[in-house]
Write a structure and sequence with these properties.
Layout lengths: L1 H27 L6 H9 L4 H4 L19 E4 L17 E4 L8 E3 L4 E4 L8 E5 L10 E6 L22 E3 L4 E4 L14 E7 L15 E2 L2 H4 L18
Antiparallel strand pairs: 1-2, 2-9, 3-8, 4-5, 4-7, 5-6, 6-9, 9-10
Protein name: M23 family metallopeptidase
Organism: Candidatus Thermofonsia Clade 1 bacterium
InterPro entries: Dup_hybrid_motif
Length: 238
Amino acid sequence: MLRRRLRYSLVPLVLIAALALLVLRSRLGIGSPSAELLRAWFRTPEIRPTLISRLAEPCPNAPFLLPSEGFVGFLYADPTAPYTPFAPHTGIDIFGDGAPGTVPVHAAYDGYLTRLPEWRSTVIIRHPSDPLQPERQIWTYYTHMASENGVQSYIVDDFPPGTSEKFVKRGTLLGYQGLYSGAPYRIGLHVHFSIVLSAPDGSFRNETHIGNTLDPSPYLGFNVDARRQPTLPVRCGS
């Protein structure tokens, strides 16, 4: 009886220890293939040219264009802080080597662009037919295209706040990488790109939940899923 009680009393301690380990792994970037390189990107700028992916055209047999030039640092499903194993990254972050407002961001695929009136740094594009599953509609989401304080938007003038369902072609210039996040922590120059599922009413789902998003890997033609330990920097077919 005493042994059984001891065994049951240890269960909460084991669960707490497991939770602490998961949080520690997240904070240290353990398990993310990009963590060490991302630290090097900021600490050692001279290595940046070796980490940058430059893809002017989509990879062979892939429908989407990588929307910006840079280092794909935060990956899909990445648990590295400020994300966690319980709330991992929902897209990819592409870190450009340049000043804010100078690194271009382009549409990944043909579709209909919307910018809500309150969006300072964000646009979303509706794709009525998913090129990999034509029976469903998906969206591509692009954000952080503004100055750090959000006062200056880096989205091009063609897409002012309130823009709705404006057709754009793959490769259309949307704006430029920025620093704005609306969060209390600094993020570094980049653009966040994700693929978002449609809700039953045809609107886009909440992009901050990974269950509402798709792994961009098959759309881009290279592995960007942190759970599958991609080779970095990303290249077509990698």
